[in-house]
Amino acid sequence: MARGEAIGCFGLTEPDFGSNPAGMRTSAKRANGGFVLDGVKRWITNGNVADVAVVWARLDGKVHRLPGRDRSPGLQGEQMHGKLSLRASVTSELYFDHCWIPKRTACRAPAR
User: Fold this and answer.
1) In the prediction, which pLDDT does 32 show?
2) Contact at 8 Å (CB) between 82 and 111?
3) Of 66, 19, 18, 3, the residue nearest 38 (C-alpha)
4) What is the CATH superfamily name and number for domain 8-105?
5) What local confidence, expressed as pLDDT, does residue 18 receive?
């Protein structure tokens, strides 16, 4: 991404809670050497054209970030149409339906 060879997106915003992580419904579960994500993200800039998605989800009762890729099984992106503003970039909804994320690609929050 730093060399401009890949596009990324940041998936925090959800349909019912906006960017409020306290109300986040997207969830992740540990499974067989990775994670399974379920939920929806909305108003994600570059969501359906991104090569990499950093997605926030509830895991073990806490909010964590996990990366997905455009070809992750169970991940679909759909461009949002009819926006009244901010038309300079693609805005999308991301749908996670038992989306498999291998543990080797998953991020951990920095230790504090």
Assistant:
1) 86
2) no
3) 66
4) Butyryl-CoA Dehydrogenase, subunit A, domain 2 (2.40.110.10)
5) 87
